[in-house]
Design brief:
The structure is a single chain. Helix 3 (about 45-60) packs antiparallel against helix 4 (about 95-110) and helix 4 (about 95-110) runs parallel beside helix 9 (about 175-180). The protein has one domain: GMP Synthetase, Chain A, domain 3 (2-Layer Sandwich). A three-stranded antiparallel beta sheet has the order 1-3-2, sandwiched between helices. It has nine helices and three strands; from the N terminus they run H-H-E-H-E-E-H-H-H-H-H-H. The protein is an alpha+beta fold. The protein is globular.
Length: about 180
């Protein structure tokens, strides 16, 4: 269905307001974030339904009522990017553990159901715990060799492309947060 230029123009005018809205909500006890992935057309519905259910379940597991939405942000001949947006009431005193539990459910669902760990948000520190599972041990060795060959002093994007030996701890998580994060398995 063609909706015309209105929705696109509306988004264009306000797209940089989203981080401000997220921070505004967080100051009022509401968590909201996004996780995005991509897959082939024949797997799109499977990835969508399973990930939607996994994020909803993870939010409920933390004791909050979920709000989860999804849209296709990019499409290609071979597949598309699914962009999940989620939100819920923050659990006071457990905000980081709650967020990580939900984020882990999304990222795990992507990889378990034929998606990628990220589409256009790249790897960065937020996705490092999953990069080896996404690329494979051999793929990670190839990326490490390219990075070492082109950037031997690790000047470009240090800590954002290759995980260290313990990415969760290097991410700055406490032992309690790491334990909570791993409970999602």
């Amino acid at each position: 269905m063609n909706l015309g230029e209105g929705p696109g123009n509306s988004f264009k005018e306000a797209k940089y307001d989203f981080p401000h809205v997220r921070d505004y909500l967080m100051d009022r006890g509401v968590m909201g974030d996004v996780s995005e992935t991509s897959t082939t057309w024949d797997n799109l519905h499977n990835l969508y339904t399973k990930t939607l259910a996994n994020i909803q379940k993870a939010i409920r597991d933390t004791g909050a009522d979920p709000w989860v939405g999804c849209h296709i942000s990019h499409n290609y001949h071979t597949g598309a990017s699914l962009y999940f947006t989620f939100g819920c009431r923050q659990i006071e005193g457990r905000e980081l553990d709650q967020y990580l539990y939900i984020k882990k459910a999304a990222e795990d669902s992507f990889l378990q159901n034929g998606g990628t760990v990220s589409h256009h948000h790249a790897v960065g520190t937020e996705h490092l715990p999953w990069i080896e599972a996404d690329l494979s041990p051999t793929g990670l060795k190839a990326v490490r060799a390219i990075k070492d060959g082109l950037d031997p002093k690790s000047v470009m994007n240090p800590g954002k492309i290759l995980p260290g030996p313990d990415p969760l701890r290097e991410w700055g998580l406490t032992d309690e947060a790491i334990a909570s994060f791993n409970k999602a398995d």
